[in-house]
Amino acid sequence: MTHAAVALDLGGTKTAGALITATGEILGQAAEPTPAQRGASAVMATAASVSRTLLDEAKERGIEVRPVLGIGSAGAIDPYTGNVLSATPNIRDWTGAALSRDLAALLEDVPGRPITTVRPVNDVHAHALGEALYRKNHGMTAEGTMFLVAFGTGVGGAMLIDGKPQVGKHFVAGHVGMTPMPHHRDSELFAAGSKTPEHMILENACGGVAFADAYRSAGGQAELSTAREVFARADEDASARRVIKASAEIAGAFLGGIVNMIDPDELVLSGGLAASGHSWWEPMIETFLKVRLPGITTRPVAASSGDMAALLGAASLAWSDRNPAAPTD
């Protein structure tokens, strides 16, 4: 009989799910819009609905499902209790949600395939776990220390040591977007998107949400609202090129500092900026190499696991004998 686990990726826009084998094979997928502004109960109900869709598919296909569900979720997650300790307002009332307890309660009555345990982890930690699983299953290096930085709408990070997420004393490890922004001659371009311009953070310059305001600050005349649109104008618009270059150089300085401080075996980048091509990668790498200490050979590489990383990571939680994110007793 085929065996699979239910894995979820709970984001502010979409709740995606998949049936995934222990080796990372995707057997089925489902998704629903996340009712982010309707509160935690509605979000939890949507997660349960996606899960039930997958459980129904498993039943129809004769797939045996693990009683453990893995989920990557926005927010700082306590891996002992499965509670959301803190979160941005993108999901209303998400802070304080009893994610493990309440989602398991919504799924405990599934005939023949009840979910008895829900293991949540921060979404970027799920990305890192998914990257490690993908590498392991494709003959790539997955041991040692891997630091992953996700440059998406915001900026997040995660560190794995031999496959174990390092969550920190207060379970907020990896919130690299909240670190002070490295100095740059064009730092002021990103002040419009900062709540405290005198104390700007990495996310102000390296999160995709910042690009449209920065483009206008650079003198851009086009009506742009997304980072994708700024990148699309790079060949013809000096203001767009200036913003992209400044953001990339700030990212490179930060990443150089990371390898100087942690000396990881692997430095992996994911997210929209990391997939944006040479106009961002080239100035980022050039600055990174200037900041990186002599003798360190580690350099940034793009994630290999693609847009399934968070679901693969959630599946690895479900397939583990114990929650790999929980601190060792």
UniProtKB/TrEMBL annotation:
Gene3D superfamilies on file: 3.30.420.40
SUPFAM superfamilies xrefs: Actin-like ATPase domain (SSF53067)
Pfam families reported in the protein's UniProt record: ROK
Similarity comment text for this entry: Belongs to the ROK (NagC/XylR) family.
Protein name per the record: ROK family protein
Organism expressing this protein natively: Rothia koreensis
